[in-house]
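SAMPLE LOG
Freezer: B-3
Tube label: C17
Construct: single chain, 75 aa
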Amino acid sequence: FTDYVGTGPKEVQRIIRFQRALFTLQHQPEINLAQLAAACGYYDQPHLIKEFKTFSGYTPVEYMATCPPYSDYFS
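STRUCTURE (predicted):
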């Protein structure tokens, strides 16, 4: 898997989950973070925030204030 994709399957799964969170925020900006975490498969809200900050450099609230979410969710 790593030879073909360039990263391990767990990392790919994390990226897809983050993309799904961006996609959900884009289409449901009123969703609260606990609902977002549950909808996107995160264990809990703090895990969502930690992963969001890892990938974007911002917490979800900071990200939404800085730039609009954009994701094509691999479509």
